[in-house]
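Input record (one chain):
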Amino acid sequence: MERMGKDMSVTHSGDPDRDFAAMMIPHHQGAIDMAKAELQFGHDPVMRRLAQGIIVQQQQEIDLMRRELERRAPRRQQGG
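The corresponding structure, as predicted from the sequence alone:
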């Protein structure tokens, strides 16, 4: 949880959509990490199913946000 909080503090880029994705990725990764702990140590079948769903859904959303961050990356000019 501490790592997630630290990772969510990003320097604002001036693009609120980009900043949202940059902050949400570690938030979602924190949820995945907690869900993996549930699968490793938990016993309740309902909670384990919930954890499995969280892992799948949050990873899909991380992948989407990373693609959007790449798409929104500032273009570097080539030349000299």
